[in-house]
Task: inverse folding
């Protein structure tokens, strides 16, 4: 019994593995963070333009955006990654002629490209949903005040839409962190890639447990940041008494925690 | 009184169960797991069936052991966990016997040993495969293999890329993402002769390094299945003695791969 417990503890806290391969895991975390932050940022910008195209009055433009969104949201990310990675390998002569092969040769860029396109499709729909949920009266009022279209979008609609979109964007970011593990399949040494490497060397399951815990930590940190962000950015629309009550509660705790004389 | 009788009955039942467990299991069917991306040893044909030398050889061994064998395809990275997790009973998949693996699984005697090799792209005219010559080059191979260990040890200045299957590494060489691929010479020769005919060529064999490559390829079992291991060892010896191995390898290889 004691031995079982001991071996279980050894499974959870495997010091030799951490000593020998800890650095590799750190490198993997770095790569995962780079891949996710890069593709989510690029996806945010691209997503905005796709959203504009989707809401455009030009039929061809909005049709193209709809097709793009439908494709990237309706097919598995792994399949998209294979199409980009191995598909570009098949088209090497053509890509070489265009001078694009140096880009596609690298697994890193293939991953960034695929993840960016994938997340931009989701983010475009988040944008669209948020913009459309800002009540029509807002832009009508802006018009009545004599604001032009750009002012209306930038000063009235967007600030409100972005606040609505904040939570779904956070979910998308979290989704990308988890989905980025697929990059390991096309030789990229992200957190999952390094984990697989260490496992191949040691045949020790606990590395997968560590990877899971690290992913969980990343996701949890983002969730907490998003909570704070939302609380802070939505101060002006939360009911006044709620904000007041919070401040009052704080004042009371300060009072009670003061030493009585 | 009654209670104690029930306890006694329970105790007997438990004892029976335990005894049953301790008894050697009678092997009637043996489930064989292999990563079928390693032609000509094992690959999936156009009908979706696993075929190759190791399939034929395993069937011959099973006939000698008088057991029914079934075959399962399993990705290489997960092949040891799947064995330990009772998804199948033996790995029969060109697994080289190494120290690190022997800590997790039980190996039979080795049943073949072939030298590893390098292949490269058609455009590359150099036949030098020394670590100095391959400095800065990108070399691909399958992950969780002895070939990764070999590259990590001797080709420190080259970029090493690992793939879930050998097919994908070969494909990336043909696509021009890799400068070299290393793996078992027979598997690479097969690729260069068939799918990689237009884009790749064979460079050179190299000698097995005993502490990395081990003595050769063996079947792998769960550590508790010593009886199954003994059965396989006996069948392997029989197949050597009566010429079964030689007959079976003829259609696949131009030379003897037994390595004994």
Result:
């Amino acid at each position: 019994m004691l031995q079982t417990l001991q071996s279980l503890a050894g499974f959870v806290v495997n010091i030799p593995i951490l000593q020998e391969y800890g650095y590799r895991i750190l490198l993997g975390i770095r790569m995962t963070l780079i891949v996710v932050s890069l593709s989510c940022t690029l996806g945010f910008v691209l997503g905005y333009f796709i959203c504009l195209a989707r809401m455009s009055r030009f039929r061809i433009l909005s049709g193209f955006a709809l097709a793009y969104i439908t494709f990237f949201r309706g097919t598995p990310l792994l399949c998209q990654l294979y199409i980009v990675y191995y598909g570009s390998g098949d088209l090497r002569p053509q890509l070489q002629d265009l001078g694009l092969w140096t880009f596609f040769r690298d697994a890193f860029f293939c991953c960034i490209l695929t993840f960016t396109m994938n997340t931009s499709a989701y983010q475009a729909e988040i944008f669209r949903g948020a913009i459309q949920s800002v009540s029509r009266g807002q832009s009508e009022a802006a018009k009545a005040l004599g604001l032009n279209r750009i002012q209306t979008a930038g000063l009235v609609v967007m600030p409100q839409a972005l606040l609505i979109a904040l939570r779904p964007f956070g979910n998308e970011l979290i989704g990308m962190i988890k989905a980025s593990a697929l990059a390991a399949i096309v030789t990229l040494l992200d957190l999952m890639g390094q984990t697989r490497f260490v496992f191949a060397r040691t045949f020790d399951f606990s590395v997968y447990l560590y990877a899971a815990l690290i992913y969980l930590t990343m996701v949890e940190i983002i969730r907490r940041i998003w909570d704070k962000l939302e609380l802070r950015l939505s101060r002006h629309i939360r009911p006044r008494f709620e904000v007041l009550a919070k401040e009052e509660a704080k004042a009371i705790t300060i009072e009670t925690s003061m030493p009585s004389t | 009184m009654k209670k104690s009788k029930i306890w006694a009955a329970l105790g007997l039942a438990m004892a029976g169960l335990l005894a049953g467990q301790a008894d050697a299991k009678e092997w009637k069917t043996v489930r064989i797991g292999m990563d079928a991306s390693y032609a000509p040893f094992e690959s999936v044909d156009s009908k979706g069936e696993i075929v190759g030398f190791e399939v034929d050889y395993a069937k011959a061994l099973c006939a000698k052991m008088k057991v029914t064998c079934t075959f399962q395809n399993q990705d290489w990275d997960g092949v040891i966990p799947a064995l330990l997790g009772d998804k199948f009973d033996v790995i029969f998949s060109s697994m080289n016997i190494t120290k690190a693996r022997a800590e997790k699984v039980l190996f039979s005697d080795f049943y073949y040993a072939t030298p590893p090799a390098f292949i490269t792209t058609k455009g590359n005219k150099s036949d030098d495969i020394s670590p100095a010559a391959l400095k800065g080059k990108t070399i691909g191979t399958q992950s969780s293999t002895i070939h990764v260990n070999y590259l990590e040890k001797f080709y420190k200045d080259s970029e090493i890329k690992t793939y879930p299957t050998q097919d994908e590494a070969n494909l990336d060489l043909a696509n021009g993402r890799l400068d070299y691929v290393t793996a078992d010479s027979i598997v690479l020769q097969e690729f260069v002769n068939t799918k990689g005919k237009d884009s790749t060529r064979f460079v050179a064999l190299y000698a097995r390094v005993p502490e990395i490559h081990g003595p050769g390829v063996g079947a792998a079992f769960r550590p508790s299945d010593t009886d199954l291991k003994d059965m396989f060892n006996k069948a392997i010896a029989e197949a050597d003695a009566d010429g079964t191995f030689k007959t079976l390898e003829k259609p696949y290889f131009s030379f003897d791969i037994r390595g004994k």
